[in-house]
# Entry
Amino acid sequence: KVGWYNAVLQPAFHLPYPDDTLAFVVLSTPSMFDKALKPFVNKERLKIIRDPVDQCVSHHLSRVKEKFPDQKVDVIFDYEILPSRKPKFLAQTAAHVAGAAFYYQRKDVKLDPWGKKKIYGVCIHPKYGGWFAIRGLLLFPDIQVPFLEQSAPVDCVSAEEKRIELLEQFNFHWQDGRYRDIIEVKERYSEEQKAYFATPPAERFRLLGLTQEAQ
# Structure
């Protein structure tokens, strides 16, 4: 429910819907690369592609909207920002309140070793660890669900030292991706997918076999 999200944030970040409004958080799993992105790129090869992942997600979420012709469905993507430069929604908070992934933050560590350093939080999924992404929100403004019960996310990094290790790796060594394997995972990105996301955006077209003209 939108109210679960708004309850844990300052008013500046609230979503402008009644508390009982139904919302879904959309995640992409490791298999998204082969099952959604590559087929999308092959199909759209002759059209203008600016950001393959964003356009692929947009394509699939617009297809979801088509499945509900009688409903108003609002979509907010993870990359959208307000004129104030604030994000339109805080993806990791949304995933946590929806029970999709646990958002580990500095406040979840009792003996904080970081002093005055800025420490960012990170979501971990019980099945995919850090090998997933939060892509957007689907909101159904006309559907109110007062009796929906909130499910807590799975606390899969419960030990204090593991939480410290996770936040250390994410904040200071995120490039090597070790934080993603803080727990045993059922599935991770393929080598091809890792290479794609490790490549600067402007050079990713070549990896997908897109020419400069298609870009």
Remarks:
- The beta strands are 21-28, 74-77, 102-104, 122-124, 133-144.
